[in-house]
Amino acid sequence: MAWRTRFAPAPTGYLHLGHVVNALHVWGLARAFGGEVLLRIEDHDRTRCRDEYEDALLDDLDWLGFAPDIGSTDSFRAARHDRAHAPRHTQRQSDNDARYAAALAALTACGLTYTCTCTRRDIARHAPRAPGEEPRYPGTCRDAHHADSESLARRARMADGDVPFDDGRLGPVQQSPAAQCGDVLVRDRHGQWTYQFAVVVDDMAHDIDVVIRGEDLLASTGRQLRLAAMLERQRPLSWWHHPLLVHPDGSKLSKANHDTSIRERRAAGAHAAGLLGEAAFLSGLLPAARDLSIDELPALFQSGVNAFSVS
Ligand code: GLU
């Protein structure tokens, strides 16, 4: 039976070359090694996501030739954002509030979450950090027993100890969520579900076997595995963190470097094969930039990656 991975963009802006790099890995590994790709729209944060960005990313995916096996771009268009009348889409996060609420209720019933009244400033004051280190929640409200309320944040308790996992590209990795970030925010004080929580709940709901994403999300993996265990996920999950896109001079992709969206590149006359080849080159999948067709993706991975397996 085919294993399943996902492409899960957040419609907080237009698709750019970094997304194309991720899509090349997701579709490439799936097509090369018998996987199927599910499309999920990660618009859990309604303050930052916009419908016009979702429309644009669906359109850009079609234009680039990345066709999902589960959740066609048309199925998202059919489940419109006209929420009063439109059907829900099980793979769009803003349509699945009840799913996250049920997962939170399950954790809470086991005493694994608590209400947190800390502001960002409180946390910054209590947890001075070394340069480059991520903010760690110091646990101020852990034993405070504040009453639950939709207008207060909720955190999940991270037990002490290491979380080991194998990355398909990087090998064995060990992380310690309690030391890295402390108790994970599940819902913020505006009632928004957080990325960390929604992604774990959805990867379970969608029967995802392999998560293929950029190395910028590597630090999230331990805490996501811990949350999945707390939610009693049974299905094994494998990981593949790929390199991020860099310019030939080694500098990172950024707006300051005039890196433009796929939308702008299209408007300026770019063609899909040219952009696919450029993204493949800038992420180390091709030795030089050239036109690349979607049909060539399996070969890119079959030659360089020979030990990919789904446990
Ligand atoms: N939605 C996330 C992003 O656009 C990706 C989530 C994931 O791959 O875990 O960065």
UniProtKB/TrEMBL annotation:
Keywords: Aminoacyl-tRNA synthetase, ATP-binding, Ligase, Metal-binding, Nucleotide-binding, Protein biosynthesis, Zinc. GO terms for molecular function: ATP binding; glutamate-tRNA ligase activity. InterPro entries: aa-tRNA-synth_I_CS (IPR001412), Glu/Gln-tRNA-synth (IPR000924), Glu/Gln-tRNA-synth_Ib_cat-dom (IPR020058), GluQ/Sye (IPR049940), Rossmann-like_a/b/a_fold (IPR014729). GO terms for cellular component: cytosol. Coiled coil: none annotated. Transmembrane segments: none annotated. Residues 4-264 form the Glutamyl/glutaminyl-tRNA synthetase class Ib catalytic domain. One of its GO terms (biological process) is glutamyl-tRNA aminoacylation. It holds the Pfam family tRNA-synt_1c. Belongs to the class-I aminoacyl-tRNA synthetase family. This is tRNA glutamyl-Q(34) synthetase GluQRS. The lineage of its organism: Bacteria, Pseudomonadati, Gemmatimonadota, Gemmatimonadia, Gemmatimonadales.
